[in-house]
Amino acid sequence: MNAVLEQLRLRLLGINDLQAFLELGGPVLWLVLVAGLLLWFLVFEHLFYLAFAQKYDVRQTERQWQARTEHHSWQARRARQGLISELRQHAWRHFHLIKTLIALAPLLGLLGTVTGMLEVFDVLALTGASNPRALAAGISRATIPTMAGMVMALSGLYAAALLESWIKRRLRHIDNQLALTEDPHATP
After folding, report:
1. Is 146 within a domain?
2. What secondary structure letter does DSSP report for 68?
3. pLDDT along the chain (188 residues), means of 10
């Protein structure tokens, strides 16, 4: 009875299916999986920062800006520029790593293709074309990592484009919030 429950639990969690898929794709698929997990961890970390933590940073920056007694001098403009630059740096943090992982995904898939085709050629060298089952296993090892790398890259591109537009929109909004006031003593 325990074995049946354990099998049911594993089936519900999909662990057996995932493990079978990873074994079917070969060792390179593990690299694609790790890169994908890191990519999506960074994407969700960025989303969390933009949705929650950045608000705190913006409030702190606004307090620093409002604490200044004047907002129109050259020094005030440089201070404003520095405050916005810090927020910009936080908003774009790790974004280059997200882009790198997106670019790396198809290359990892291609590596899986090469290793899978090497396996096909090994089977051909040992048995000739008489073992279609062994050939099919090598071909699947060649195509599954490629597919996984492409899926990771395409979904990552979509997520990165959304993040990039959200970051740019938020930074424009922050730039407008820290408005420069006009010098009341300046002559037009």
Report:
1. yes
2. S
3. 64 65 82 95 94 90 87 87 92 95 95 85 76 73 89 96 94 82 47
Nearest to 112, CA basis, from 4, 35, 10 = 35
Contact at 8 Å (CB) between 59 and 29? no
Residue 1 inside a domain? The answer is: no
How many Cβ atoms sit within 10 Å of the Cβ of residue 82? 11
The answer to whether position 91 is within a domain reads yes
| Residue 150 exposure: Cα atoms within 13 Å on the Cβ side | 8
**What is the three-class DSSP state of 93?**
coil
**3-state SS track over 39-83:** HHHHHHHHHHHHHHHHHHHHHHHHHHHHHCCCCCCHHHHHHHHHH
pTM > 0.90: no
Which residue is listed with tokens 């591109």? 157
